[in-house]
Amino acid sequence: MPNAPRTRSSYRRWLLPLATVVGLLAALVLWSLPHLSHDPRSAAGDTTEQHPPGPPWRYGQADARFTVIEYADLECPYCQAYAPVLRKWIDQHPDVSLQWHHLPLPMHEPMATRLARLAECVGEAQGHAGFWKAVTWIYQHTRSDGQGLPAGLDYPDQDQVVQACLASERPDVIIRAQADEARQAGVMATPTLRLLDHKSGQSLIVAGPAEGDTLLSALDLLAATDATRPTTELSADDVSDMPR
């Protein structure tokens, strides 16, 4: 017996479920695309809140093998020029994170400490991302070399929490402790970098501003160091002997 011709109602019976399935599949693909294309390691600034709250302030992946500690002065013109370069380099190397270490230089006082207090208090109120935002803003607006911000110019995000912090001694304690620690380690100039390999336990001090090739050579040197040896401060002169 020949098959009966299909009517509009019979087409509708199987087209409606098919359209539903196709729609669900399309929605699933569209939902998954951003997750497949977005690598969180490509934007270190998006990961700052992975770190424990409070100082020392960090930028980049919390589980990075290497950490670059930057000893910096917010009135140092060399730090001012180097800051965006170093952060861009960190963005490009997800196995390296950045840590800030205050070292206000006597020649830039009292403005260096005053701006360090501002950055600390913004960090206290707004976390790691807020701290780095404040550092960026300060370097964009300071006249540097101890001259500070132009008269009448204030940081725009000073809420009551920031103001309460500035009225306290909390930022001074942190800044003095970090500056004393730097001087005890023999760091007297800014910017200076200390590179840490969390796997080998070794560290290396490099005078900044260091170019990307120099940083990579230093990291190669740390990675090649025997992890069974006790932690030592490697000579920065060894970095120049590394192949580029």
Automatic annotation (TrEMBL):
InterPro entries per UniProt: Thioredoxin-like_fold, Thioredoxin-like_sf, Thioredoxin_domain
Annotated SUPFAM superfamilies: Thioredoxin-like
Protein name: Thioredoxin domain-containing protein
Annotated ranges, domain Thioredoxin: 27-224
Superkingdom of origin organism: Bacteria
Signal peptide positions (record): none
Gene3D superfamilies (alphabetical): Glutaredoxin
